[in-house]
Write a structure and sequence with these properties.
By secondary structure, the chain is mainly alpha-helical. It has one domain. Helix content is 72%, strand content 4%. The chain is built from 9 helices and 2 strands. α2 crosses α7, α3 runs parallel beside α5 and α3 packs parallel to α9.
């Protein structure tokens, strides 16, 4: 992916903070590290979210729909828009059978694959930093695990009843459907804010 981004697409090794219209030339070596961290983070974020019926598939569909919009409004990225919308269609079709009560399950193969695709789209659209907002639901899930582990190792007690975060609400006797729908709403809000930031950055 790093090679394609640099040599085929011609992306510059630049770190963009689109919300503040700030960019830093980080060089090819640090750019390689950035690509690695984005892919690793997105794959693990989606994988950690895949703990309840329909949660990862629906959240991924929302994030991928945002990337469909981002690539559609960006000149020369229509091929990526097609790739993203195909993934949205796959998630929605899968969700028909994966929504509670699920009859088929995503597993690590599906969640890691979706996470990798989201990370790749972030790299190819130079929204690596903005992915923190667009994929905010995955960031929250991953951070909940990190906080839980750190708190237990450092202080011997847990912050949450169970990690990742969706299991905390499950332990509070929330239904799977209630958790799923509320997490979808949160994912949609994060994605909407992320798209608004992107739209503002390319329009300025």
């Amino acid at each position: 992916l790093w090679w394609v981004a640099r040599h085929e697409v011609g992306l510059e090794p630049v770190l963009l903070f689109r919300a503040f219209d700030i960019s830093f030339d980080i060089g090819p070596v640090l750019y390689f590290v950035l690509v690695f961290l984005v892919i690793a983070g997105s794959t693990n974020g989606v994988n950690l979210t895949d703990g309840l019926d329909g949660l990862a598939a629906g959240s991924s569909a929302i994030v991928l729909l945002t990337y469909t919009a981002i690539t559609f409004v960006t000149a020369g990225q229509q091929d990526l828009a097609l790739f993203a919308i195909c993934l949205v269609g796959g998630c929605v079709g899968f969700l028909w059978f994966n929504a509670f009560p699920a009859t088929i399950f995503m597993g690590d193969t599906g969640s890691l694959g979706l996470g990798g695709a989201i990370g790749a789209l972030a790299v190819m659209t130079q929204t690596e930093v903005l992915l923190i907002v667009i994929g905010g639901i995955f960031v929250i899930e991953a951070l909940s695990v990190l906080v839980q582990v750190f708190s237990f190792k450092a202080f011997g007690r847990r912050v949450l009843l169970m990690a990742p975060l969706h299991h905390h609400f499950e332990m509070m006797a929330w239904s799977e459907t209630k958790i799923m729908l509320r997490f979808w709403i949160i994912a949609a809000v994060f994605s909407g804010v992320g798209f608004a930031i992107y739209q503002q950055s390319i329009g300025s």
